[in-house]
Design brief:
Blueprint: E1 2-7, E2 13-17, H1 22-31, E3 39-42, H2 48-59, E4 62-65, E5 71-76, E6 83-84, H3 86-89, H4 99-106, E7 108-112, H5 125-133, E8 137-141, E9 144-148, E10 156-158, E11 160-161, E12 164-165, H6 167-177, E13 183-187, H7 193-204, E14 208-210, E15 216-220, E16 228-231, H8 236-248, E17 252-258, H9 264-273, E18 275-279, E19 289-295, E20 303-305, H10 317-324, E21 329-334, H11 345-350, E22 354-358, E23 361-366, E24 374-376, H12 380-392, E25 396-400, H13 412-417, E26 423-427, H14 428-437
Helix pairs in contact: 1-2, 1-7, 4-6, 5-6, 6-7, 8-10, 8-12, 10-12
């Protein structure tokens, strides 16, 4: 199992590009099940999650090839496969995205209950209620979700839940409704940019979807979907993470392919804190532009509440907590999406952070020094926040279990080292041998 050894105190500077979005790519890839193909994608990031999705789709009868550099082609060669097995599905929650496309295209789907990061309950009941509303028969047998339908029928579906709209549920129901008979209206649909990106793909395949990016989707069903070519949107969470990493080191970094419009809530908080995200070419497409990230010498505290898009994204909560440890004064972070998503709090405390948690809220008493220490990554975004803490800390930090990072960041250590960081990837055995060999051991 790999870990990072980070020597803190190095200022980041230079240029880095944002990869394609993991959270967009996974449902986009699953949507290829709706067509015999070919469906060509550019910008699929090279991550463990996307590799697992490729394995799953191959098991579900898709041929995956790379006809040209940077393009991944999907084509159906076995339309009879309908079982998404536990061995693959347990590795990532987004595997549930194959449920709607499988059911709609092949009339049946058997999908294991999904896995993913462990930071609280994230049920799939809204997915199943939506598919039942479209006419599917749904049951749970031996840990597998069984769905069947001769042909789905359009209807009106409400997808709101206790913590807001369901992003993957919206992806599933929207995908399934594209080939349902009649018109489907989804109320309280997720407004995330990744849903809008999925709608762009589906429409290019011949679907008729209106309202993507807003809370009300209207989908007129068609008989079938065809081939398409699609570029995956930039990853807004990777972009926000790199911007925050530049800030914690008082750096000066240019970020290319920055999805500016998708990060307005985070940019607003950056401005409040004293971090400047400057568009280098205002005439450039604000969905994919270049920005320069710099910060003031004295960072200011702020108040953050995570919300569904266009609010502040829950996937940047941990990274901003690290940043606010360096601000002078008390900040308040409230988690409204996943109230238990605070497993990084105890690890940041090991590094000298002064954090006070009360239920879904954490007070960050900023202005102190972070000190390097061995810490344990618990999930994908917590891993990123601990790497950032290591960059800002005095001395050496060991971040264990960085396999979580590989689910959402393409070789993060290489990208940050190119900006001046000192991060070494080691496996735990190599680290233990190095420690034993050191003069202090």
């Amino acid at each position: 199992m790999d870990c990072f050894r980070i020597e803190g105190g190095r200022r980041l500077s230079g240029r880095v590009a944002v990869d394609g979005s993991k959270n967009a790519a996974l449902p986009l890839m699953a949507a290829a099940l709706l067509s015999d193909g070919p469906v060509d994608f550019s910008g699929i990031p090279d991550l463990s999650d996307t590799a697992n999705m490729l394995r799953l789709l191959e098991e579900l009868g898709l041929e995956v090839t790379r006809p040209t550099d940077g393009v991944t082609r999907f084509r159906t060669i076995d339309p009879t496969a309908v079982h998404a097995r536990y061995d693959i599905v347990r590795t990532m929650r987004a595997s549930i995205c194959v449920l709607g496309p499988l059911l709609a295209r092949r009339g049946k789907a058997v999908v294991s209950m999904p896995g993913g990061c462990a930071f609280g309950s994230r049920p799939v009941d809204l997915h199943l209620r939506g598919l039942e509303a479209l006419g599917a028969k749904v049951s749970l047998e031996g840990g597998d979700i069984h769905c069947s339908a001769d042909r789905l029928r359009g209807t009106t579906i409400f997808l709101g839940g206790p913590f807001g709209s369901t992003v993957l549920g919206t992806a599933n129901i929207m995908s399934a409704a594209t080939v349902a008979k009649g018109t489907t209206t989804i109320e309280s649909a997720a407004c995330e940019p990744e849903i809008a990106d999925l709608a762009r793909l589906l429409n290019s395949m011949g679907a008729k979807i209106k309202g993507a990016g807003g809370p009300r989707l209207v989908i007129e069903g068609v008989d079938e979907l065809g081939p398409a070519v699609h570029q995956v949107m930039p990853d807004r969470i990777v972009a926000g993470t790199y911007a925050a990493a530049a800030a914690v080191t008082n750096g000066d970094v240019v970020i290319d392919d920055f999805p500016y419009d998708s990060l307005l809530a985070a940019i607003d908080r950056f401005n409040e804190i004293g971090v400047h995200v400057e568009r280098l070419d205002p005439a450039q497409d604000s969905g994919r532009c270049s920005v320069r990230v710099t910060c003031e010498r004295k960072l200011r505290p702020t108040i953050i509440t995570t919300q569904p898009h266009p609010g502040f994204p829950t996937d940047l909560q941990a990274q901003f907590m690290t940043l606010l440890c360096l601000a002078r004064g008390n900040s308040i972070i409230t988690e409204k999406i996943y109230p238990e998503r605070f497993m990084h709090v105890s690890e940041l405390t090991r590094m000298g952070a002064n954090l006070i948690r009360q239920g879904p809220t954490v007070m960050v008493v900023g202005g102190g020094e972070l000190v390097g220490a061995p810490v344990m990554a618990s999930d994908l975004r917590a891993s990123a926040c601990l790497v950032m803490a290591g960059l800002a800390a005095r001395g050496e930090t060991i971040v264990n279990r960085v396999y979580h990072l590989d689910r959402g960041y393409v070789r993060m250590e290489e990208a940050l080292n190119a900006l001046g960081a000192s991060i070494e990837r080691l496996d735990e055995r190599s680290l233990a041998d190095a420690d034993l060999a050191s003069p202090e051991a």
